[in-house]
Amino acid sequence: MRYFQKMKGVTQSPPGVSLKEIGWSWAGAFLGILPVAYINYILFAGTDLVMIIGSFGASAVLVYGAIRSPLAQPRNLIGGHVLSAIIGVAAYKVFPDQLWLAAPIAVATAIAVMHATKTLHPPGGATALIAVIGSPQIHSLGYLYALVPVGVGALIMLVVALLINNIPNHRRYPEFWF
Description:
Elements: H1 2-5, H2 19-43, H3 55-65, H4 74-94, H5 99-116, H6 123-133, H7 136-141, H8 147-164
Helix pairs in contact: 2-3, 2-8, 3-6, 3-8, 4-5, 4-6, 4-8, 5-6
């Protein structure tokens, strides 16, 4: 019975955010994803290169919408994505014909490594998973996947976060670098 009691929660839902905060989060997310998507759909069109991955959407929530969270800081954004990408590619290379095994190994190992390196960034779990279950286009990148799209894309989003999140007086980013 005590086990189930823990599932009730202990605090109330956090308060809502102002329309001004919602607007800045929207602007940051739009301007952060825009250059990554532009590079992917305009500059890389017709090539085997890819620039945008699904986990960047989750990163946008953190680095533009939850900017004070420890999970949204530069170390976490860059380190979490890049380390997870390397782990995901390695899991796929070791178990290319057993995706049912490579997928949980990639995600679980990425979480453990992010914890150990103080780079926990929840979208990193998706980045590792994408390396395993992604398209042949993703698989053909091999370890380059950790640099492009992952590293470069996360870096672009970081630069935009630094620029946009510090425009209004009531916002400050980052809370810490290392």
